[in-house]
Every structure is written in C-alpha cells, then in structure tokens.
Design a protein that fits this description.
By secondary structure, the chain is an alpha/beta fold. It is 34% helix and 25% strand. It has helices at 8-20, 71-74, 86-103, 128-139, 144-158, 193-206, 226-229, 234-239, and strands spanning 25-37, 43-52, 57-61, 107-111, 162-164, 173-177, 180-186, 215-222, 242-247, 253-255. The longest helix is centred in the middle third of the chain and has 18 residues, at 86-103.
Length: 256
C-alpha cells in the first residue's frame, strides 16, 4: 500500500496548490466540524483533505468508495461509533462537510476521479497537463455574481455576521448579528446594468416581509453597476431600509 504522499489525493492537492499559488494545509481540522460522539461522549474533529486559508477554500478529493459500495473500504460487518458501517458513516460525514463548510463561509470544491483523466476503476492516469486544465475550471468561480456573493459573505463574517438559511429560497444571502438581520440580493457584471439594477430592486421589494426596523435589505453589486443602483434616490432607499454595497474588482467591500 502506498503512502499518503504517493496517493491520488496528494497528487490532486498538489496540483490545486500549483493552480492557486498557495500551499495547502492538508488534513486540516476545524473546531466546528466534528464526528459523532464515541463511547466516552467525546467528538473527534473531522479532517478535510486540503484547506487554503488565503482563498478560504476547501477541496475534498472523493474516490469511488465515497459514491458507491466498496466492501474493502466499507467493512459492512463492523459498526462505527455512528451505529452504522464505515461506508454509511463516510456518506454521513461527507454530507456533514457539504453542509458545515459553506455554512462557515468557506468555499467547498469536491473533485472526483471522473473530473480528471482517470480509468474505469477511478485511478488517475496523472496526466498533469490535462488535469491542471480541469482543476482550473473546477476551482474558478463560475460567475461574477458568485464572486460577489462569496466576497460579501466573507466580509460579513469578518464583521461579526452569521449567514443563515434564507427565509425565501431565492434570496442570495441572509445573515444575522444579534437582533439585526440582512437580506441580500447580489448581481455580477452585466451588459444590461440598468435593467439588472431595476430587477434587483424588484426582487428586494418582494422579500420585504419583515417589519422590524432592525431588518435591512441589501443590494450588493460590482463596481461597474454602482451608477445604475445609485439612480434610486437615497431618501427612497432609506425609507425602504435598503443598503447598497460595492464589491470592487480586487474583492474589497464598500458600503455606498
């Protein structure tokens, strides 16, 4: 059996570090990501395959045993502390990572053998050139709106806000801080800045179901759309409890 340093996981993490320009923290553990309690009631922290603090990014490399039964890995005749065999526990803990990592303001990317140059058994051929191209696509933010949401979420966390599940499932981001609540609509770069700004204001109006004065409605836009969203007069925005935030091209957040 090869060492972890020779594993496909280590190969993938190394290529991700190359793409990101930052060395990963491998098998990193967060205090808030924990397994089920053992016999003594103690919860062990669950590791993630790789974490890049500068990018606030976690990558999990999930081989075939994460998605289909593999008796060698699952050990179906042996129960874990979760009361299920190892394969079921793996699925349970993967689902926990999928939920908790984004909930704490980090981006999670899951890489599977099929995403890279691999054979039918899920073994990587280690075609570095092709794999780097594939990983660049996987690690990239898929749209400018996603960049705006991700940057604003990170800023909110630094300001003491906690992202929560949105009341309206179409809301881009909702966060609380004490008795304060923010309901956010975000837009990315667009060729129709005026139309998209008007649409965004309309989307916020439909979500104004909270009457408490400590609930604010927030429109977050890239620098290119600042002029369009500022067309609504400040006194109108204040009456409607709408705040405007700009996310610059170099990912700084400014309240307008």
């Amino acid at each position: 059996m090869g060492s972890r340093d020779d594993s496909d996981e280590a190969y993938v993490v190394g290529l991700c570090s190359q793409v990101l320009g930052e060395t990963a923290l491998t098998q990193h553990k967060f205090d808030w990501l924990q397994g089920d309690p053992g016999a003594g009631g103690r919860r062990a922290r669950l590791p993630v395959d790789a974490y890049w603090p500068g990018h606030r990014l976690v990558v999990e490399y999930r081989e075939l045993q994460h998605d289909q039964p593999v008796p060698h890995f699952d050990k179906p005749d042996r129960l874990t502390v979760s009361g299920v065999h190892r394969g079921e526990q793996r699925a349970l803990y993967d689902a926990r990572r999928d939920t908790e990592i984004p909930a704490h303001g980090l981006r999670l990317i899951v890489v599977r053998p099929a995403d890279l140059d691999s054979d039918g058994r899920g073994r990587l051929r280690r075609n570095r050139e092709a794999d780097v191209v594939a990983l660049k696509a996987l690690l990239a933010l898929r749209s400018d709106e996603e960049r705006v949401v991700y940057t604003f979420r990170t800023w909110l966390l630094a300001e003491g806000w906690t992202p929560v599940d949105p009341t309206d499932r179409w809301t881009d981001l909702e966060a609380v801080r004490g008795e304060e609540r923010l309901i956010c609509e975000a837009k990315g770069r667009t060729g129709e800045k005026g139309i998209d700004a008007d649409v965004a204001y309309g989307q916020l109006l439909r979500r104004m179901t909270y009457q408490e004065p400590r609930t604010r409605y927030t429109l977050v836009v890239p620098s290119s759309s600042v002029g369009a969203v500022m067309r609504v007069p400040a006194h109108v925005r204040e009456l409607l409890r709408i705040d405007l935030y700009e996310v610059t091209d170099d990912d700084l957040v400014r309240q307008l």
